[in-house]
Amino acid sequence: MDEVVRRLRGRGGWSRSSPRPWGVAVPPVVLLAFLFLYPLALVVQQSFRPESGGTSLQPYADVFASTAFREALWTTVWIAVASTVGCLVLGFVLALIIAFVPFPGARVVARFVDVFLTFPSFLITLALLFIYGTTGIVGSFQFLTTPWGVLLAEITYFTPFVVRPLLAAFSQLDTAQLEAAGSLGARPLRIIRRVILPEALPGLAAGGSLVLVLCLNEFGIVLFTGAKGVTTLPMLVYSKAILESDYPGACVVAVVNVLISVGLYGLYRVVSCRARA
Predict the structure, then answer these.
(1) Which residues does 147 contact at the CB level (< 8 Å), separation at least 6?
(2) What span, in angstroms and rounded, lies between the C-alpha atoms of 196 and 169?
(3) Residue 263 half-sphere exposure toward CB, CA atoms < 13 A
(4) CA 7 to chain CA centroid, nearest Å
(5) Which one, 72, 193, 230, 236, has least CB within 10 Å?
(6) Is the CB of residue 206 less than 8 Å from the CB of residue 226?
(7) What is the pTM of this model?
(8) In whole angstroms, how far apart are CA 274 and each of 193, 205, 269?
(9) Radius of gyration for the alpha carbons in the chain, expressed in angstroms and rounded
(10) Dist. CA 150–CA 121, nearest whole Å
(11) pLDDT tens for residues 198-207?
(12) Whole-angstrom Cα distance, residue 190 to residue 41?
């Protein structure tokens, strides 16, 4: 690599001091802006255009004043927060078992966690339908069509997003600390609380932040479960755009959802950077 750099400099080509060629950077930036920023700009623009015409804040006033929006916002927040808490608790326990409890196939289970991250969310919901669906093993309880069914499906699907960073954090843990604590007579719960948990906090924070963002934007699980009375912000966007043809209202809800997601993503980036520091 150094030889290539020397040859380029010797031929009067690229050097560290030479200006970067804008002709190379502009096309991909324009392409990304057209594919991602332009559609988003259209959504924002449409959110300020009521059906009566013109440009105003009336669509925002109508949506914010509606009971459906407030209920959808509350449902989205409490399901996302509850799912995140459930994922953190279950993910921490599973990561502890995989990392510190010797059993045959532990490495295979850890690899399966990586594979599980590639599964689509509707696949997990479909599997749960065979248990909790109307014709499932315990279908008579109609559990999956309730908010608790959505909560179970999201915890099941998003828990590996917590397990993965925790396993990475546990792999960096000095086992000598565990051996020293055990030799001093510390019980397993005390070792977990005093030695393991402090090392796991950055991974828990990063994984929890990511899961919170993903749960806020989850659409497939809520739709596929067919939960009655469970309307989240993504479901409200779908309802207003497809069922009611209220495109300004749908765009307003979408903008609110994007703002919340971007804010939480910024929190996730901060937590992730601190976790790697």
Answers:
(1) 75, 79, 227, 229, 230
(2) 10
(3) 7
(4) 46
(5) 193
(6) no
(7) 0.79
(8) 21, 10, 9
(9) 25
(10) 12
(11) 888 888 888 8
(12) 53
Whether 57 contacts 48, CB under 8 Å: yes
At residue 5, the pLDDT reads 46
Per residue in 231-242, pLDDT tens? 899 999 999 988
Region 182-199: mean pLDDT is: 77
CA 265, chain centre distance (Å) = 9
Q: How big is the chain, counted in residues?
A: 277
Q: What is the pLDDT of residue 71?
A: 93
Q: Is residue 220 a contact partner of residue 148, using CB atoms and an 8 Å limit?
A: no
d(CA 269, CA 84): 17
| Spatial distance between the Cα atoms of 43 and 13, rounded to a whole number of angstroms | 44
* Token pair in block for residue 10: 């010797």
State mean pLDDT over 142-146.
76
Torsion angles phi and psi, residue 20, rounded to 5: -75, 140
